[in-house]
Amino acid sequence: MEVSRILINGEWVSSSSKKIIDVQNPATLEIVGRVPACNEADVNAAVAAAKKAQIDWNKTPGLEKAQQLHEVASRIRDMEEELATSITKETGKPLCESVESIENVAGCFDYYAEVGRSERGHTFPPVSRHQVNFTIKEPYGVVAAIVPFNFPLLLMAWKVAPALAAGNTVVCKPSYLNPTSNLIMARAYEDLPPGVMNVITGTGGTVGGQLIRHPDVNLIAFTGSTEAGRRIASEAGTQLKEVNLELGGIDPLIVFEDADIDIAVRGATYARLLNAGQVCTSSKRIYVVEKIAKEFTDRMIKHVKSLRVGDPMKPDTDIGPLVSAEALEDIEQQVARAVKDGAKLVHGGKRVQPDGLKGFFYEPAILVDVPQGSAATTEEIFGPVIAVIVAKDADDAIRKANDSEYGLGATIFTNNLEYMMKAMENIKAGSFWVNDPLTDNDAGAFGGMRASGIGRELGIEGLDAFREPKHVHIDYVMESKPFWFPYREREDE
Ligand code: NAD
């Protein structure tokens, strides 16, 4: 199998590194891609190309830029089947989910093509009729875009589309676990001016670190774990570089006593098990008020048992494998810790080999009687593990839900307006869903509070993350007076 080339300065080039990363299909364990583990010379070439291209790209008229971003979207749609298959083969995500994500990726480029064209700043009232005051928003320059493994194209689109719309140029680095789909998607950037988009591959610790430290990178847009985010923030801090950090979460989900239990069971299961539980905003802590806890838990166990763990290429598969052997081992250890802390494992929680496949499959675990404050409520478990915690009443559930270092998303199931308002006001979270978890929208801001991140993606806020304001004050000299400089000329004295 050939080693993929990387995109630098509009050309598909070989890396100067001799090191290779084999990309493994987590369902079958086959090698489905070979990409270079790029080195510092590649980083330097990519950043230099982006720096050179940025001046002209920023001057490109809005309409022309918008047309080019729409063209990227259209080329992504043309590659839907190839991209979706590639995502499934290198992440283990069920194929139907991969197919659905491609429209969202393309749609994000369309959205920012238009938003970037129509919104560049604002004027504000002058003090006199000779004055014009306004704020313009300028691109940062060269953006480093780094994304995790779980939604390789969508999360890249959330950075690349607004960054380009705002007039920046980009060097992007996908996760070393699944970089192939991003290299395929890079074909959609081929018609952009050379250097505007560059794609390099490699591990976070080496090429990722070299990229964020590069002095000509002006903004780091990072999505990944809180641990890596902390390291990146401190490196960026020493260089006084702007960062946008979309990090981990241990999102709460509350089922109040008035909730429609059937909807809550299906909604909570989806919110926790989508993408085999490998979603930043998945509901990792499920609080159920005592009155309905038994009924909810019994029905959830029954529902989870009906789900099919298996080959992600099959249309009736609900849950695919975990992304890697390490991820599987981590989950097993975390479940063991939760049980040691007092939780009861009432379903699943073991390795399985469905459809005759050798991959990293895990039967979804259901933990009940999870003590608040134990590992299952304080560690991010990035896999199919449902943790049910009983709350005395609505107030107790809201208090426990907010008892976290993180603040990414929160979901509640209720039709009671009082519960909705109380939960919305008291739970720190960047996204708040009522009866409809995990929905996002290009026009609505997405991001985390507390240890879940700094900054926002999507919406106007997501565009503003890639540009900085400049206040412009023009005092147009109509006649040679009046000026308000405090110093008089010497001759006046
Ligand atoms: P990770 O932090 O291990 O890696 C993310 C990316 O950062 C990868 O491309 C990696 O190579 C790179 N990287 C790691 N360390 C780096 C460093 N020091 N310098 C530069 N680059 C570095 O995360 P992961 O395991 O791929 O993804 C799972 C994590 O991502 C979870 O914590 C999840 O909650 C989080 N996540 C957050 C969001 C969000 O929007 N908030 C979305 C998806 C995933």
Describe the model:
With 493 residues, the protein is α/β, with parallel strands linked by helices. Helix content is 38%, strand content 21%. It contains 15 helices and 22 strands. The chain has helices spanning 40-59, 62-78, 80-91, 95-118, 154-165, 180-185, 204-213, 226-239, 261-273, 290-305, 325-340, 375-378, 394-401, 417-426, 459-464; strands at residues 6-8, 11-13, 20-24, 31-36, 121-124, 131-139, 142-146, 169-173, 197-199, 219-223, 242-246, 251-255, 283-289, 344-347, 365-368, 385-391, 406-407, 409-413, 431-434, 449-450, 453-454, 467-475. The strands form 6 sheets. Strands 14-15-16-13-12-18-19 form a 7-stranded mixed β-sheet, with helices on both faces. Helix 8 links the parallel strand 10 (219-223) and strand 11. The longest helix is centred in the N-terminal third of the chain and has 24 residues, at 95-118. The N and C termini lie far apart (85 Å). The mean pLDDT is 95. The structure holds nicotinamide-adenine-dinucleotide. Nicotinamide-adenine-dinucleotide (NAD) binds next to helix 7 and helix 8.
Topology of this structure?
Blueprint: E1 6-8, E2 11-13, E3 20-24, E4 31-36, H1 40-59, H2 62-78, H3 80-91, H4 95-118, E5 121-124, E6 131-139, E7 142-146, H5 154-165, E8 169-173, H6 180-185, E9 197-199, H7 204-213, E10 219-223, H8 226-239, E11 242-246, E12 251-255, H9 261-273, E13 283-289, H10 290-305, H11 325-340, E14 344-347, E15 365-368, H12 375-378, E16 385-391, H13 394-401, E17 406-407, E18 409-413, H14 417-426, E19 431-434, E20 449-450, E21 453-454, H15 459-464, E22 467-475
Parallel strand pairs: 7-8, 7-10, 8-9, 10-11, 12-13, 12-18, 13-16, 15-16, 18-19
Antiparallel strand pairs: 1-2, 3-4, 5-6, 6-22, 11-21, 14-15, 17-20
Helix pairs in contact: 2-4, 3-4, 4-5, 9-10
Bound molecules: nicotinamide-adenine-dinucleotide.
Residues 146-150, 155, 173, 175-176, 203-205, 208-209, 212, 223-225, 228, 231-232, 246-249, 280, 380, 382, 408, 448, 453 line the site of nicotinamide-adenine-dinucleotide.
